[in-house]
Amino acid sequence: MSAKASILGLGIMGAAIARSAAHGGLNTTAWDRSPERASGFASDKVQIAHAARDAVQDADIVVTMVSDADAVLSIMKEREVLAAMKPGAVWIQMSTIGIEGTERAWRLAGTRPEIRFLDAPVSGSKAAAEQGKLVILASGDQDRAGATAQPFFDAIGAQTHWLGDVGQGTRMKLLFNAWIAILMEGVAEVSILGDALGIDLGRFTSLVLGGPLVPAWALAKLQKIKEGRTAETEFPLRWAHKDVQLALAAAAEERAMLPILNRIDAIWAEAEPGFGADDLSAIYLALSNGVKQ
CA-CA distance, 110 to 206, in Å (whole number)? Predict the structure, then answer.
């Protein structure tokens, strides 16, 4: 009998994860705070619940994949999702909510010690989620929760890394996201420099393709910029900016030693009102349109 998974949150990543879980053989139910988004979700293998409590009552695995820590806590506490979970179920917190947010979620989970809690953010874009090729940064009690969680991880991911105690997954994700932010800002600025020099981005891409200078992810963003597809959102600029802010908050006193991330925070804050819903690569357009540097 297949495990029952409940996905709470049907944004870009949550929707793709729900489909991958179902295609991977899990009995999958999903729910979203927006009735319109839930009703627009398309999958003949995923059942849509009208209430969050209803989505989780029989679930072996409950996944939160929403925007921020307040949303996670609101769903699990105020909508009584945690109270509705059956004993022995695993709550997999996959949203990127930073260290403090993860600690809040873990404390809430501790009010029901019979529920197992995993901090397991993911690395990968919409395409990776749709293809079941995410990288899962899992942390928590693998002995108690790993066997239940692993079929779900196998369905949505190409790699699962168990990193230790709760919070280690989130810490690693902050490094992933800081790295991505620095790369993306570099890709955008190199693209603008190429424009200034009269160099076709396609030719530049062909020259660096397969070499040691540019990872495949960055080349894909270069191609997106070249083809004018930055409005085709794989990961919104506003969420990438949020992740930069979470990384800076986690740095605490060492924040002053991160001048590039601090500058990215300022630049992306100015870009967000006009381009926040677009793909992260839209920072190129924001810079081209005069965002201050």
Answer: 52
